[in-house]
Amino acid sequence: MGGDDTKICTLTDGEETSVVLPSAQVVATLPHNVTREARLTMDLMVVGTGPECDLIVPDARVSRRHCELKLTRRGVVLRDLGSKNGTFIGEIPVMEAILPVGAVATIGSTRLSIALEGAPSLVRLSTSERFGEAIGRSVVMRALFAQLERAAATSETILLLGESGTGKEVLARAIHAASPRRDGPLVIFDCSAVAPSLVEAELFGHTRGAFTGAVAPHAGLLEQADGGTLFIDELGELPLDLQPKLLRALEARQIRRVGSSEWRSFDARVIAATHRDLRARVAEGTFRQDLYYRLAVVEVRVPALRERKDDIPALVERFLAAQSPPRALSDLPPNVMDVLLSHDWPGNVRELRNMVSRLVIFPDLAREALGVALAPSRVEAARPARGAEASAAERAEGPAAGTAEGGLSALLQMQLHEARDAVVEHFERRYIAAKLREHGGNVSRTADAIGVSRQLVYRLIERYGLRGAERA
């Protein structure tokens, strides 16, 4: 990149205790020169027509969640989110690219550009690459650790937002361990794992005879967490009729067991987490605004693994060391890290951990799959030095060269996606078939061994047509 681009490439990692965050604005210019702006931070910015988006663009040709922008040390990364009409830089459709200052991206009938306004700010980084069992040497994770280190020392409620598999429970455990309540209990409640009719009794407790099966009085989880921390996972699944009761309990620090008229005091810190977009749910009326604000005293977003790929080698080393017997990177097939770094990891850290286990258990299958991914026709697509990120800047320097380079970049991206799909499907089919044979075709035992639900195993059986001898 050249010119003003260097001004926004100021995020660096290493020994720094803070980074300079440029004051960058994303400007959306709609027809008739109507503009909308939003400040770009280290968090993802989602652009689209949906009310949950960070930058809402009222354009009929723009998808609900059209694209996302992210400020990184390489610059502002623009990524299409599978939109219906696509994302373009010039005439070239892009899946992911650097959007330099002065360049224009087009979504629907709207133009997106980056503007630098005002003085930059400092973002504090943790001096550690660990927070409890969570590890991260990337800038975005060290910034997250710094936030949580400060928040852990207080008794404030914390809301962790992030996709499934990003490690929100790991962070909740780390917060508890770093807090003044570390000697108290850590109680974990998953709203999605309990029938809605039983959530109230689980949280607040019940008296004997309060309902069928209540043969003895039972203290709820808020009482059990007294003196410690209650981690409420998948908060977005909390039934709407229970939300005002939880709000009252948090405000008054008192609960009333189901079937009782007696109020009981409790002293527990609450950490909540969800993969749902709570702001969108508030807008839809499916989540109470007052409860959201009560829980979001400290609100942090846990980045997806695709946003912190610098952490993948360290995570792989961690997962390998946890194997029995412990393994090292040298035990994996050659070039495996190229493939791991090229994948977007929709299942995040959980998916990466499971993949490492598969690579250890079935190294021969891994080598065969890697052969597909790194075939000569696809090698260039796996190289990060060129592609959409480089071509975005080069297109800004010259139309003719930009068009040729951009077309090549788009082709390579398509090949990379095809290679990823081929690797995943090839490996997944062989892996699930082998595990089914290992457990005599028993779906329940296979699911337990892999660590997934039976429903997922059934879907994979159906997807890959695993029948008869392949399952036994």
Automatic annotation (TrEMBL):
Keyword set, alphabetical order: ATP-binding, DNA-binding, Nucleotide-binding, Transcription, Transcription regulation
Give the signal peptide as a residue range, or say none if absent: none
- Which residues are in the Sigma-54 factor interaction domain? 134-361
Q: Which GO terms describe its molecular function?
A: ATP binding; sequence-specific DNA binding
What the entry lists under Gene3D superfamilies is as follows: 1.10.8.60, 2.60.200.20, Homeodomain-like (1.10.10.60), P-loop containing nucleotide triphosphate hydrolases (3.40.50.300)
Database matches in SUPFAM superfamilies: Homeodomain-like, P-loop containing nucleoside triphosphate hydrolases, SMAD/FHA domain
- Source organism: Sorangium cellulosum So0157-2
Q: Which Pfam families match?
A: AAA_lid_14, FHA, HTH_8, Sigma54_activat
Name of the protein this chain belongs to = ATPase AAA
Q: Does the keyword Acyltransferase apply?
A: no
Q: Which BP terms does GO give this entry? A: regulation of DNA-templated transcription
Q: Output the superkingdom of the source species.
A: Bacteria
